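Subject: for your reference before the review

Hello V.,

The reviewers asked for a structural picture of the protein, and I figured it would be easier to keep everything in one thread rather than splitting it across files. Below is the amino acid sequence we used in the manuscript, unchanged from the supplementary table.
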Amino acid sequence: MLVLTGEETAQEVIALSYGLEEGLQKFYATCADMAVEPEVGRLLSKLAEIEVRHRDKLFDAYLAVESNPIDRKSFEAEVNTEMTEGGLSVNELIERNQPEFSSSAAVLNFAMMLEAQAMDLYMRYADKCENSTVKAILFNMAEEEKAHLNSLGNLMGKQVQQ
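And here is what came back from the structure prediction:
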């Protein structure tokens, strides 16, 4: 499980969040390639694309708070991208959960669980953080995950109606 003290700098929180989002993107992309059902593969690919957009927003946040920013390639080289919000590595998450990807509904349920974990993680650490800049970044990421969760819920609703 991830442990933050609440004393992290804005740059450290952004780097951690960026890595978590990239880890989840790798997870979704890998599972999309392994999906047997084409609809499941397309859904997982879409989820991977959304994580890329989350990283873009985080890098923009980094540029906004860092007085002497490094380029994106250098930034990414310093980030741990092999962990997901649940604290597992990408490979561990795949090994433990691949059987869940038998249908689009199962993928949506699992993705909703992951996004809820991410939202919870960001909210908990925002609550305990004393740095107002870092707190705002964490609350913003929690809102991003909430919006993602709502989008997944809407997709689930469309599937139920079909």
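For the response letter, the relevant points are probably these. The chain has a mean pLDDT of 83. DSSP finds six helices and no strands in the chain.

Happy to draft the paragraph if you're swamped.

O.
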